[in-house]
Structures are given as C-alpha cells and as structure tokens.
Amino acid sequence: MLIVAVWLLTVFAWISLVCYMYLRYQKSNLQYVDGRSKQVALLLIAHPDDECMFFGPSIHKLLEIGFDVQCLCLTNGNFYGQGKLRTEELIKSLKVFNIKSENVKCLDIDVFPDDPNALWPIHQLSENIRKHMKTIANLHLILTFDSFGVSGHPNHCALRNAVSVVQKCHRDLLFYELKTCSVFRKYIGLLNLPISVALYICGKTSLVALSSPMQVWCNFLAMMKHKSQLMWFRYLYILFSKYMVINELIIIKDSAVT
Ligand SMILES: [Zn+2]
C-alpha cells in the first residue's frame, strides 16, 4: 500500500513538474505589439487588495511580456471608513510589482460604494472607466474579473458587466477576464497545475499566468502591504489560494462581432 502511495505521489510530482515547465516556458499567445512607446495593460479592480489577492500572477505575466501595467480601482475600500489608509496600501502593494504610484488610481464616487449590497449602475460605471481610459496613452489591453467575480462579490461582477459596454466602443483593444474556478480548485494552490494545463490545451482558457517562486514571494509581500486586511484567515488564503500562484485568463469576445 505504501509503495503504491509513493509511486502515485512520484508520478503526480513528475506530471506537475512537466506542467510547471510547460506553463513557465511556453511562448505566450498574447504578443506584445512593439511600437515607439510602451503599450499599456490596464487592470480594473473593485477594491484595494484585489490586485494581489487575485491578479498577482497576471501582473507578473503582463510585465514579463513587456507591458506597462496600470491599475484603476473603482473604490477606495471605504466599507469600514478606512478609504485613505487602503488607498495608501494599494499604492504600496503595487510598488512591490514595480508599478509607480502615478499609474495607480483609486476612485471614490458615491454611486460606486465599497458595499456588497450595492448594485452599481453599469452605464455610469462604464462611462467612468472610459473617462479614465482616455487619460492613458498607448492603452492596448484591459483585464478584469469575469462575471462570477472570483468571490462572487457584486462589485467585482459589476466590473465585468461594465467592460462589455466599454468593449463596444473600443474594438481595437484586447479584453481579458480572470476565470473563476470552483471552491475546491480555489484552495488547492499548485495542485491545480495539471488542470490548468489541460484547460489551456483544450482551448477553455486563452492564457495561463503561472508565477515563479520569486514572483509568488512578491505576491506575498504585496499582500503584506494591506495591513488593515490581515486577519488570520488571510494567511490561510495566502497559503492555499490558487490565485496567489496561477491565473487562468479568457479573452473576452465582442458579442457584436461573430
Ligand atoms: Zn474585491
């Protein structure tokens, strides 16, 4: 029995290693279009800490490809009246990824409160996103949550709905969403590797961002910058969450174009 268990573990370890190498060293199908100026990828999030809780591997991947990454956060995370502090934490967190403070913007608009019970007006939301997009030269790509919002938070889901509206006016840009996985997959971290590879090969995802050990450490350090949010269960999240290590991205197809 023990021999079988050891044999199975060894086989799984080898499969995982092969998957790791495949994902880390595959040629990305998201190509950086070289121009005279660096192109920009805009990360759309709802709350300070979304960037490292969920999007750390994607940020590393976009930077590796050659993008300049900017971040627009639709709230300052003021649910408990800590908006100013949480804005500062977001800036510090993104600094860990080498993203400058001038490339980070936190909005504080009454109709988009940090509140899981608030339904954000989608049209107004898309208008505010577009207004910010106009301030970015060489914008090429937008990344946000999918319609399940990873955690199901309505503020996350609203962003995806707004992006559908934005996309209709910006068909020249690339739009990606972060795939929400099942709760089981969410908390088995690196054990997701074979599943992520299988989904990618089958065409169920468009891009897999897998962090190297140094990048995982960077994601951890970024999480540590959100001191106001570091309850005990956050440490469990850091240890086990897939989103600290792997992001599966899906390209958002314009529904008006077939
Ligand atoms: Zn959030």
Describe this structure in words.
It is a single chain. This protein has 258 residues and is of the alpha/beta class. The protein has one domain (40-251): Rossmann fold. It is 46% helix and 14% strand. The chain contains eleven helices and seven strands. The chain has helices at residues 2-25, 50-53, 56-65, 83-96, 122-133, 149-152, 154-169, 183-186, 193-201, 213-224, 232-240, and strands at 40-45, 68-73, 104-106, 139-145, 174-178, 207-210, 246-251. A seven-stranded mixed β-sheet has the order 3-2-1-4-5-7-6, with helices on both faces. Helix 4 packs antiparallel against helix 10 (213-224) and helix 5 crosses helix 7. The longest helix is centred in the N-terminal third of the chain and has 24 residues, at 2-25. The chain starts with a helix and ends in a 7-residue tail after the last strand. The mean pLDDT is 92. It binds zinc ion (ZN). Zinc ion (ZN) binds at residues 46-47, 50, 153, 156.
Which helices and strands appear, and what pairs or packs with what?
Elements: H1 2-25, E1 40-45, H2 50-53, H3 56-65, E2 68-73, H4 83-96, E3 104-106, H5 122-133, E4 139-145, H6 149-152, H7 154-169, E5 174-178, H8 183-186, H9 193-201, E6 207-210, H10 213-224, H11 232-240, E7 246-251
The site of zinc ion has 5 residues, from loops.
